[in-house]
Amino acid sequence: MTRWFEDVEPGEKFPIGDHRFTAAEIVAFARAYDPQYLHTDAERAAAGPFGGLTASFCHAVVVGHRKMVDALAAEAERLRRAGQEPGVSGPSPGLSRIEIAAPVRPGDTLSYTLTITGKRVSNSLPGWGLLFNRIDAVNQYGEAVYFAEVVGFSKRRDYKMPLGIRVRMVLGRLVGRVRPRRGRKG
Amino acid sequence: MTTPPVRPRIAEELARGEVIALEPVTLTREMVVGYAREFDPLPFHLDESAARRSLLGGLAASGWQTALFAHKRLIEALPAGLDARLVSIVDLKWKRPVLVGDTISGTATIDDIAPAEGNAARNTLTVGVEMRNQRGEPVLTVTCRYALGGVGSANGGAAA
Question: What burial class does residue B24 get, using C-beta atoms within 10 Å of its C-beta: 0-12 exposed, 13-18 middle, 19+ buried?
């Protein structure tokens, strides 16, 4: 989240947005990343397992990720406008699982919700914590389409860096400052 | 004319333990930034200097873009006439950043292939996927389960 690691409460639930899947974008996405007739050829898909064109599940999942990114950016903006400094989200080290339950057809609208399911301090990255999130996607009929259990890095506001690491970082920065200047002249 | 049942054919062509090669793809700046604009507009996927200051250390592809290429290469490698629908993803790890200019390729090892539960016309394929960069370093590992259908299956898809 765009809140600091310390300010995130497990159990909190955030609606992160809706997306309507059009036939044109279903086909365009599938041509790029999931080139199968189920997702690219309405005529052949009519005789397929779902009796019509369906979106690649990869498509539904990456749109859910986009919704999360947009929700984070919107929250950061809100905090800035309220005169607060937003927290920092890092990249994701991975996810534990995604389960897919129902197809997505042209014209369907998915509603995405993010739930914080847990958090802990990172063992490998000083100054960072891990947030455990669950994303649920539900269609306009209220049917579950998929859920994903993902992990994300979140910066710790109250972290005090040990002296040894701080000294190394300052030295690193000094060296870094000298080198790029030389590079740019050359 | 009757079409032969699909299950034996799949069982012949895909066997447990088989390793499917996932062909290389080089991620250009255009691909990385283009994908990020559409699906993952975080500063470290869009902007060189923001990326250098981030945990990723340089302009890096969205982890999902790497995963999508693994999926695409697997689909392309399956026997013609089969369709594969993703059913679940387990334990996906983005092990290191894929930076602009990196070439990734990998393997999908068939952990299991068995008739789908409750649907005799389809099979469930479980694969362990590993993608590596041009230095052979793993960038992504994941286990995926697919529902397979295809030519001749009653419920499976493409008409023969």
Answer: middle
